[in-house]
Specification:
With about 190 residues, the protein is of the alpha/beta class. It has five helices and eleven strands, in the order βαββαβαβββαββαββ. It has a six-stranded mixed β-sheet, sandwiched between helices. The model has no long low-confidence stretch (mean pLDDT about 95). The structure holds phosphoribosyl ATP (PRT) and zinc ion. The site of zinc ion has 3 residues, from loops.
Amino acid sequence: METLKLAVQKSGRLSEKSLQFIKECGISYAWNKAKLKTQSYNFPLELLFLRDDDIPKYVADGVADIGIIGENVMLEKGKTVGLVEKMGFSRCRLSIAVPQTSEYNGISDLNGKKIATSYPVILQKHLDEQGVTAEIHEISGSVEIAPSIGLADAVCDLVSTGSTLLSNGLKEVEVILRSEAVMIATPGLS
Ligand code: PRT
Ligand code: ZN
């Protein structure tokens, strides 16, 4: 039987639940964090441990057959992959937030503004759909700090409890995507 290659996040918010799912499927394996792949000893499955951002490309290219990532990453990377199923964990939303002190009456207020995000593709698509022209400033992390250091007027970032926005003096004004972990597959497999 051919071995199925499954890519999961090595370390982060998806890791624990992804491995729990594999365990609940009755798949057993030995692994330590220094290893980037391991073979199950009771199922024809090889596990690959990767950065979540790299998983869509590996799956699209067929290096991995299936993978578990956030839907937000799947959409942002724009790779051709099949959606197998929604996993029901790591739920969050991708939202636009502005300083609590700024007045906000609707998305058209963002015209001509600068928005910091790690999700330029999803954000640009949403702004285009809404007929808003804003400048997108891409940063890879700590997005919520951008308005307070004068880097941007607004942010577009993942929100779960909302406490990060709150502690950085921001308020959530638009939800542009609701996301959860998804299983993706190489085209033709799903
Ligand atoms: O190292 P690697 O590249 O693999 O991991 P990563 O750092 O890129 O991703 P990671 O582990 O932080 O998140 C993986 C996935 O978890 C995301 O792509 C989402 O699909 C999902 N997820 C669910 C979240 C959150 N909830 C979340 N709250 N990802 C990030 N956050 C961050 C958010 O960016 C913000 O900084 O948590 C902060 C907000 O949280 P609250 O609770 O204060 O609102
Ligand atoms: Zn990542």
